[in-house]
UniProtKB/TrEMBL annotation, chain A:
PROSITE patterns: ABC_TM1 (PS50928). The keyword Nucleus does not apply. This is ABC transporter permease. The chain crosses the membrane at residues 7-29, 54-77, 89-112, 118-139, 183-208, 228-250. It is found in: Cell inner membrane; Cell membrane. It holds the Pfam family BPD_transp_1. It is a multi-pass membrane protein. Residues 54-250 form the ABC transmembrane type-1 domain. It comes from the Bacteria. It comes from Salipiger mangrovisoli. InterPro entries: MetI-like, MetI-like_sf. Keywords: Cell inner membrane, Cell membrane, Membrane, Transmembrane, Transmembrane helix, Transport.
TrEMBL record, chain B:
Belongs to the binding-protein-dependent transport system permease family. CysTW subfamily. It comes from Salipiger mangrovisoli. Pfam families: BPD_transp_1. It is found in: Cell membrane. This is ABC transporter permease subunit. It is a multi-pass membrane protein. The chain crosses the membrane at residues 20-42, 54-71, 77-96, 117-138, 158-181, 202-223, 229-250, 262-284. Residues 69-283 form the ABC transmembrane type-1 domain. The keyword Cell membrane applies.
Length: 260, 293
């Protein structure tokens, strides 16, 4: 491939990716006729519904991250240490949420945990929130598990555990004080992806009727002219920030290791 | 896990205790993935009174549902084919095209962002660009007198949705194919040219056959990805385009098909299509790993 052709392909590709972002930002700034302004953003920020749905999604994202860490770190650690033969199986299972579309999973939730079932989670607001959090955790499981498992690969789990045990540490101490700090970067990467996924998620929240940011975006899109584009820009910045932070923490540790 | 702390387990005597560590994870998967999916699959083969039937599956073969599957499949095939092609070309330009190495890291980071930037905001971005009042639409009309609408282009259509889906399909392809392109050994190319192969021959006879499983596997992955995408489609088209995820969404919300078990059957059909695509992906992935180590 010649260099000129490479440049041409790359520039065409970049144009395709930049134009929609440009269009989105341009639209979000043109609420005032004839000049650019931040009016749409002001309108969005002043909307109490924006604040409610946004903070709801932030809280849900944080809860999902905490739950995800509590579930994934001990599991990945245990599989590496005691059940290495099961590793491919567990890894395959963690990829299943990518195979089964979210709309199907949440359909199952609605039918399985309705008010007349054995576990009526959708009967109460708390129960529905809990169910939504489990759904989010399921959506982010492939990313969280992969990140943590890759992190565990870089440390000698068996030796560290034996050393800790001979010093009298219990399992909880080992996981909290030994494993977690060692895979912190991986856990953070997984957490940022989870945050980005939860903030933008639409299907599950909409079908479970919870006031999250995604359904609010869609509602605004159907009813307002300029505000949706301001919201979309905000959503894009959140995604960027999350991915940027992953790069940052990964790079930070690389320097850390090079210094030793 | 607390019961494992003391006394230290002697593994030979309590083999079952080791499995206990997987219990929380297994329970989570069972309750929030396996059982809900089973509920859908079983429901697809049940009447309202719970008796076994093929009526729901047969009910899928009506004109409106079949056409929704057909449109969904067409959009998924088109967006994954173009996604693979363009993603491959961009990755090849980046890895093999002699471009400065500084381009690589930002492009990969951007791919990571863009492949995660799906859903409702993506739909808005394309509405603002190719919609009736969008940036590109207006620019073409005022500067060149080209009226996209009059030419039959509509963002709320097959091609509109396909172009929009490409925004997350191309980056995904770039992310997956770049390591594979890195795995092409320089020696292969040198050996080929020693034997007198031209650049085109090298690609046709050596490189593409090696990359083929990866490319086809990624195609399957992208296909499943597009087939299950709900939010972008709903935010972009409302309910004007009759594709499977939109129909299923409406069915779950308000039983528009008038038969709850037909909804199960539709969802089952979705699992079947995405499941099949993923089986293809996994099989081809295993094949491709033989060469690209």
């Amino acid at each position: 491939m010649t260099r000129a052709a490479s440049w041409a392909i790359l520039l065409l590709g970049i144009t395709y990716f930049v134009l929609p972002l440009l269009g989105m930002v341009e639209f979000s700034l043109s609420m005032r006729r004839g000049e650019y302004s931040f009016d749409a953003y002001a309108a969005v920020l002043a909307d109490p519904q924006f604040r409610q749905t946004f903070s709801y999604s932030v809280v849900m994202a944080l809860l999902t991250i905490v739950f995800g860490i509590l579930l994934v770190v001990p599991t990945a650690f245990w599989v590496r240490l005691k059940l290495p033969r099961l590793r491919p199986v567990v890894e395959f299972v963690t990829l299943l949420p990518l195979v089964i579309p979210a709309i199907v999973t949440v359909f199952g939730y609605i039918r399985l945990y309705n008010t007349s079932s054995w576990l009526p989670l959708t009967g109460t607001i708390f129960g529905t929130n809990l169910l939504l959090m489990f759904g989010y955790a399921m959506l982010s499981l492939p990313y969280m598990y992969r990140a943590v498992d890759t992190g565990l690969r870089t440390i000698d789990v068996a030796t560290l555990t034996e050393a800790a045990q001979s010093l009298g540490a219990g399992w909880v101490t080992i996981i909290v004080k030994l494993i977690l700090p060692n895979v912190l970067v991986a856990v953070l990467s997984g957490s940022f992806v989870t945050f980005a996924i939860v903030m933008g998620e639409f299907t599950m929240a909409a079908l479970l009727n919870r006031p999250a940011f995604g359904p609010y975006l869609q509602l605004m899109g159907a009813n307002k002219a300029y505000e949706p584009f301001a919201l979309a820009t905000i959503a894009f910045i959140i995604t960027w920030a999350c991915m940027g932070l992953i790069q940052l923490v990964t790079r930070f540790t690389k320097h850390d290791k090079a210094g030793r | 896990m607390t019961d494992l702390t003391s006394p230290p387990p002697k593994r030979r005597w309590h083999p079952s205790l080791t499995w206990l560590g997987l219990l929380p994870f297994a329970l989570f998967i069972l309750l929030f993935l396996v059982l809900p999916t089973m509920k859908i699959v079983i429901g697809a083969f049940q009447r309202a009174d719970g008796s076994f039937t093929f009526e729901n599956i047969a009910g899928l073969f009506t004109a409106s549902i079949l056409s929704s599957y057909w449109i969904s499949i067409k959009i998924s095939v088109a967006s994954s084919a173009f996604g693979c092609l363009i993603g491959f070309l961009m990755a090849a330009a980046m890895v093999l095209g002699g471009l400065p190495r500084g381009i690589r890291s930002p492009l990969m980071t951007f791919s990571g962002v863009a492949s995660n930037f799906a859903g409702v905001p993506l739909a808005f971005a394309f509405l603002a660009t190719l919609g009736p009042l969008g940036l590109v639409t207006m620019f073409l009309r005022t500067e060149f007198g080209i009226n996209l609408r009059a030419m039959g282009f509509n963002i709320l259509s097959f091609w509109g949705l396909t172009i929009t889906y490409l925004f997350f399909q191309i980056p995904l392809m770039i992310l997956i194919i770049t390591p594979a392109l890195d795995g092409l050994k320089r020696e292969w190319r040198e050996a080929a040219s020693c034997l007198g192969a031209s650049g085109a021959q090298y690609w046709r006879i050596v490189a593409l056959p090696i990359l083929f499983p990866t490319i086809l596997g990624t195609f399957a992955l992208l296909f499943a990805n597009a087939f299950g995408a709900v939010a972008t489609a709903i935010a972009l088209t409302g309910s004007s385009l009759n594709i499977v995820p939109i129909m299923l969404f409406a069915q779950i919300r308000g039983d528009v098909l008038g038969n709850p078990h037909l909804g199960y059957a539709m969802a089952f059909g979705m699992i079947l299509v995405t499941g099949l695509a993923n089986v293809v992906y996994i099989v081809l992935r295993i094949r491709s790993e033989r060469w690209l180590k």
